[in-house]
Design brief:
Structural class: alpha+beta
CATH topology of the largest domain: Heat Shock Protein 90
CATH superfamily of the largest domain: Histidine kinase-like ATPase, C-terminal domain
Number of helices: 6
Largest sheet: 5 strands, mixed
Order of helices and strands: HHHEHEEHEEHEE
Strand content: 5-15%
Number of strands: 7
């Protein structure tokens, strides 16, 4: 007899279903029916216990897989940061050893840009295990890092304006990536000031990135862009339950890309 049958028999024995010698037929039929029903319920109970045990085992495996993936991601980030630091150091060393002044300067600029890329990457992942973030301050620091890799470097004006706003990191991190992509996109077409602005409006909040460049070409629709950058932007806007609006800036020139979002939007763990 297996373990399940043994447990079931003990339960049935404990129920003490004994048929009296002078048991009336109706009573005995009812007694047997009750015994069969109790037997069925005990089998259901055992099946549910086994299913629960299997589910707990699967959940344990899932938690272990999540921990493993988190460890692998941390290790990958660590190796990336080490690699960027090594490349930056090698470029700096080459710039000091270069005989040609122009070559040395170009190597020094390249070293600084690689180091700044590392800073941007670190900034974007700094909130991975934090509950909330003050968004304006976070974007200011992020844009300071970005300024080091933009064409024109520190000479280009990249400013952050607006209100202080505490947001969940599940919204703050995607917004950080959105700003990074939009700022880098602005530098491809505009040599002028780039403005990042955070505002609170009735019914929600708005984060915009604008420039004073030539503006969108006639008939251009960012949603139809084949560029990876804009695909990432719209995907992240959808992830946080936001709305994207684009057109000229408030002065009627250049471009302005605005993301409208609310803080009460539920974001699933998988980002959907």
């Amino acid at each position: 007899m297996n373990g399940e049958a043994t447990r079931l028999q003990k339960k049935l024995d404990a129920a003490a279903f004994q048929r009296p010698p002078d048991c009336p037929r109706e009573f005995c039929v009812g007694l047997e029916t009750g015994r069969e029903e109790l037997e069925r319920l005990y089998r259901v109970e055992d099946a549910l216990r086994n299913a629960l045990a299997r589910e707990e085992a699967l959940l344990g495996q899932k938690d272990e897989l999540i921990r493993h993936q988190d460890l692998m991601r941390r290790e990958a980030d660590h190796r990336l940061m080490n690699g960027l630091q090594m490349v930056s150091s090698l470029l700096s060393l080459q710039s000091r050893e270069a005989q040609d002044v122009k070559t040395a300067e170009q190597l020094r600029i390249a070293a600084n840009r690689v180091a700044t890329i590392g800073s941007v990457h670190k900034r974007l992942h700094a909130l991975d295990h934090v509950g909330t973030v003050e968004l304006k301050q976070y974007l200011e620091k992020l844009c300071q890092d970005l300024a080091g890799v933009l064409p024109g470097g520190e000479q280009r004006l990249l400013a952050v304006e607006g209100v202080a706003l505490e947001v969940p990191t599940a919204i703050g991190i995607p917004l950080g990536y959105i700003v990074s992509e939009l700022v880098m996109n602005c530098t491809k077409y505009a040599d002028s000031k780039i403005m990042v602005r955070l505002e609170t409006k009735p019914g929600g909040h708005e984060l915009s990135v604008s420039d004073d460049g030539p503006g969108y070409p006639e008939g251009f629709d960012p949603k139809q862009s084949k560029g990876l950058g804009m695909k990432i932007v719209f995907s992240l806007v959808h992830q946080i339950g936001g709305q994207a609006h684009y057109g000229p800036n408030c002065s009627g020139r250049g471009t302005c890309f605005t993301v409208r979002f609310a803080l009460d939007h539920h974001i699933a763990p998988d980002g959907n």
